[in-house]
Structures are given as C-alpha cells and as structure tokens.
Design brief:
Largest sheet: 6 strands, parallel
Structural class: alpha/beta
CATH topology of the largest domain: Rossmann fold
Radius of gyration: 18 Å
Distance between the termini: 15 Å
Shape: elongated
Order of helices and strands: EHHHHHEHEHHEHEEH
Oligomer: single chain
CATH superfamily of the largest domain: HAD superfamily/HAD-like
CATH architecture of the largest domain: 3-Layer(aba) Sandwich
Number of helices: 10
Strand order of the largest sheet: 3-2-1-4-5-6
Low-confidence stretches: none
Length: 233
C-alpha cells in the first residue's frame, strides 16, 4: 500500500485498540483464581470487576485517583460487592499478581499484526498510552509488535494523561512533526479521539467498547478497511 495522502505519522493507543485488554485480563484472572480458594469463579468476579475497573481508569485519566490507588481500589470495591473478606496484604498480593501476569498474555485484535506489517512500510508508527510504562513495554514485546513502533509515549514518562493536550503536544515535539500530518487511532472517545482532535491531530475511532455514535471522526469496528480509510485523509 502506497502512502498517497498527507498522513506521515500514525499514533496508536494500545489497550482495547491493538492489545485485546478484556480477553487478556480475563485469562489473567483465570490463572489467578486457580491459585486462590475463592467462593466464586472468575467469570462471576468479572461481571462486577470489569465496569468497576473502567470507572477507575476513567478517574485515573482525569487525575482523580493515583496509580497506587487504582491498583488496589478496583479490587477492594469488587470484593466488597461480593461480600468477600480480605485484608490490605491480600489486596496488595492480588494486585501484584495481576500486574505480573497480565502483560504475559498476548492476544491482539484480529488483523493487527497484518495491518502493522503493511503500515510500517509507509508510515511512522508510535504509541500513546495512559497505561503503566513497565507493563505496556512488556505487552508490546511479548505480543510481538514492539518492532513496529518508534516511540512509546506513556503517561508515566510524560507526566500527563490523555486527553490532556500536553501529552499529544509532547508526542508531536518528540517526533518533530505537525498535527495535520498525524493520525491517532484509539478506542476511547474522550481520551483518544477528543484529545487528539483538540490539538489538530486527525483521528479514527476503533470502537471496541461500543461507545456512542459521533461524527467527530470515522468510526470502525474492525481493521478490515483501515488502509482505504487512512488514504482518505
């Protein structure tokens, strides 16, 4: 595929965009539950944990909870709902197990590797993520896609989180490019799409979370026609 448009650089989000967070998280909890004697199975746990986790990640992106709070409060709230007794040491242990095991899971969305292989030949590819630095680097490496990306820009190494314009401006300065020549592909309307558009970066919404329809940018639900769509910018 030839690069026949104005786009030179593509920024990708990682979780829920390239790396299948929900599937990998589910497999992580399956492993954890095999090591503990819970009075419920991991699928029952996930019914409560998943929306709670989403809630706290949104709060984290708005700087309303800290990294350390995020790591434990999501478990605390879920266990409270399930009326499961725990102590602080147990919460820390579960949190550490989760952070340790999660990046070893390597499921990507369908077509991701094939897409990156083609885009890599014609565009400069980089990551912008609110995820934790060490964890995100492991995910990229172990899933076999780190080789496609030049810069890995995380909220931890910039001190800013999407949708803050500062993290996007940091990324533009880092790669010495202008917003009009760049494209952001991400799953989160607020963090990825609004954040990018607010600084003039083009965007494509990979709507893996069934977010509401909007007309801010193109919306896709798979990567089947991504090449043709990018060429329209």
């Amino acid at each position: 595929m030839e690069n026949s448009n104005k786009i030179k650089t593509i920024f990708f989000d990682l979780d829920h965009t390239l790396w299948d967070f929900e599937e990998n998280s589910k497999l992580t909890f399956r492993d954890i539950f095999n090591d503990y004697d819970f009075p419920f199975d991991y699928l029952h746990f996930l019914k409560f944990y998943v929306p709670i986790n989403h809630k706290y990640w949104n709060l984290y992106s708005k700087n309303e909870v800290s990294k350390s709070e995020l790591r434990t409060v999501r478990f605390r709230e879920t266990f409270d709902i399930l009326d499961f007794k725990y102590n602080t040491q147990f919460l820390d242990q579960i949190s550490n197990d989760y952070i340790r095991i999660l990046p070893t899971k390597t499921n990507l969305f369908k077509g991701v590797k094939e897409m990156l292989e083609i885009l890599f030949l014609n565009y400069n590819l980089h990551i912008i993520t609110n995820g934790f630095q060490e964890v995100q680097l492991k995910k990229l490496k172990l899933s076999g896609i780190s080789k496609y990306f030049g810069k890995i820009i995380t909220s931890e190494n910039t001190g800013e989180k999407k949708p803050s314009p500062k993290i996007f401006k940091y990324a533009l300065n880092l790669i010495d490019d202008i917003a009009e020549d760049c494209l952001m592909i991400g799953d989160n309307f607020v963090a990825d799409i609004s954040g990018a558009r607010n600084v003039g970066i083009n965007a494509i919404h990979f709507n893996s979370n069934n977010e509401e329809y909007h007309d801010i940018c193109p919306i896709i639900y798979s990567y089947n026609n991504i090449y043709e769509l990018i060429n329209k910018f």
